Automatic annotation (TrEMBL):
Protein family membership: Belongs to the phosphate/phosphite/phosphonate binding protein family.
InterPro entries named among the record's database cross-references: PhnD
Organism this protein belongs to: Halomonas llamarensis
Span of the signal peptide: 1-29
Name under which the protein is recorded: Phosphate/phosphite/phosphonate ABC transporter substrate-binding protein
Source species, domain of life: Bacteria
Length: 328
């Protein structure tokens, strides 16, 4: 069965309003679905849309459409992804087209409407893609030993009297900026249950960056600071601070990076081939490997477990998975 390719209107034209309107026109099944839109079911409780029970509804297109998360220069990324596109074509024995989307909302709508079959959704929009578009996350870029993503690390000076999160009470703690995940939103969501609520139990001071937060801790301008692990690791590698001057008092679970997804209604035999293509791809010597330094392979993940911390952070910050919130 061949899926028509973007015949009606370009992806960039879809908005949250059109997505909401299309979602509302479907007949709703009586089933367990959790936070999923009413056009999907989740009878097995894995928090992603089930494949349709009727085999006639399984999509098995001759041409697969692949999209990476919106970037500033889509043309460059089209070239960067070409080695993987070639590999995907070889394994699936299908034509594969790279499509450059212009917004997260357009990308989500494209998968919901059946015009997008495989996609990389960035960390925050992934739950929207899962709940609004029936996306099924199955892979992330990672290292040979299975590591991926980054963590929130909370540091204090080695000479301070702070040894655990509760000890932050009454202290001056550097957050980076209001919109930062690891530098602000994540600690606001995660630290209260560990004994210290930002802005209530301790004073929040915005430093402006992870680098400035860390250097402020080293200089004892701040009592502590939550920072992104990948940033402070690069700082240490460049000799910008002495690791012996600080003490790590808390580290979160890994925050996932871009998720790679297939549409929930794809034929299971096609899904097997897509997964085979991802997990057999060798980044070595490719433009993709050069662009994503330190990445060696795609590693298997699942949404329920690997996006738990992101859902927790989003819930704590009042995020709900609606088309309107996605557009914002």
């Amino acid at each position: 069965m061949t899926t028509p390719l973007f015949r009606k209107r370009p992806l960039a034209m879809f908005t949250a309003i059109s997505l909401f309107a299309l979602l509302s026109t479907h007949a709703y099944a009586e089933c367990e679905r959790g936070d999923l839109a009413d056009i999907y079911c989740d009878e097995d409780g894995n928090m992603v849309a089930d494949r349709p029970s009727n085999e006639s509804e399984w999509a098995n297109p001759d041409t697969l459409i692949f999209a990476y998360t919106p970037v500033e220069d889509p043309a460059i990324y089209s070239d960067i992804w070409q080695p993987f596109i070639d590999h995907l074509e070889d394994v699936t024995e299908r034509d594969v087209r790279f499509f450059a989307v212009q917004s997260n909302a357009a990308q989500v709508e494209a998968m919901r409407s059946g015009r997008l079959h495989i996609a990389g959704f960035s960390t925050g929009p992934t739950p929207f893609a899962v709940n609004l578009a029936g996306a099924v996350p199955f892979a992330l870029m990672g290292s040979d030993d299975g590591r991926f993503g980054y963590t929130l690390q909370l540091f204090t000076h080695v000479d301070s009297d702070i040894h655990e999160v509760e000890d932050l009470k009454g202290k001056r703690v550097a957050h980076t900026s209001p919109t930062s995940n690891s530098g602000n939103q994540a600690p606001r969501a995660l630290l209260p249950e560990l004994g210290a609520t930002p802005g209530e139990d301790y004073e929040v001071i915005y430093s402006g960056s992870h680098d400035q937060s860390m250097l402020g801790v080293v200089a004892q301008d701040y009592d502590a600071a939550p920072v992104a692990s990948e940033v402070v690791e690069r700082m240490a590698a460049r000799g910008l601070y002495d690791e012996d001057d600080v003490r790590l008092i808390y580290e979160s679970d890994s925050f996932p990076t871009t998720s790679y997804n297939y549409a929930h209604d794809l034929h299971p035999d096609l899904v097997d081939k897509i997964e085979e293509a991802f997990f057999s791809f060798d980044f070595t010597g490719t433009e993709l490997g050069e662009e994503f330094e330190g990445v060696e392979k795609f590693i298997p993940i699942n949404y329920k477990d690997n996006w738990k911390v992101i859902r927790q952070i989003q819930a704590a910050n009042g995020v709900s998975y609606t088309p309107e919130n996605l557009e914002e």
